[in-house]
Amino acid sequence: MVNPKTFVMIVDDDVSILDILRQSLSLEGYACEAFTRGEDALEALERMPAEVLLTDIVMPGMRGLELVSRAKRIHPAMTAIVMTGFVEEFSYDEAIRSGAADFIKKPFTVQELIVRIKHAKLQDHLRELSITDELTGLSNRRGFFAFAQQQMKQAKRNGERMVLFFADLDDLKIINDTFGHVAGDRALSDAARIFVETFRDSDIIARMGGDEFAVLLGNAPDAGIETVRNRLEKRLVEYNARRDGSFRLSVSVGLTVFDPAKPATVDELIHQADARMYEEKMRRKVAGGTA
Prior knowledge:
The protein is of the alpha/beta class. Helices cover 51% and strands 19% of the residues. It folds into two domains: 7-130, Response regulator (Rossmann fold, 3-Layer(aba) Sandwich), CATH 3.40.50.2300; 141-286, 2-Layer Sandwich (Alpha-Beta Plaits).
């Protein structure tokens, strides 16, 4: 039996298959929710994060690979497995690009499915370790590039605008030299937590290395960008107000826009946002602020 808290969301327009899978996995100790439509499953994922998403590929309305892609934007750590009875029409590469960890051909036994779930979760766990920053728990540079490239391809297809925030934690060297490297690590971890509290779950947040952070926002109107910047500043002010006289946190931020009509690479966006971040840092230094 598995941990009963392991939550599997099953999506298939065939009600008989859906019932069999739900009952069989429940008997094996999985907690299950089942849906016949991808749209309903995606809406439910906003309220109840699943550890595993098991979905058919061919369904009316939202197809399985689109569901996986959109679901992974909401819960990047979720393991996704796709089912298909049409192998000749199936592209494994396309499934992987959508964010699926594995696929299984119909018909299959419950035991085969359980083995696939365990294997896919293990592979996702190992992959997560390779793309996660150990200190902050955010994505590392490698993870950011992997997630960002995937999301930018989808944004280009859908004609969606995205915004890249590139931020530098000010005075990390001074914090290290004055209070020690343990305090410097604490500053980075606290900054990461502030970023997580400021941005949405669907945004890609990463520590790029050293004192640099990046955030990629999807569907970000101009008003939303200003709101986010104000929220970030407010959280920093609140954090510093609680400090006991030790280090204070401030960040310099630069941003650039991904225009699907004139797509740029992740490297190009980072270069543009980094240049604007440096300009902000210099303006603050000239004005006598922290830099």
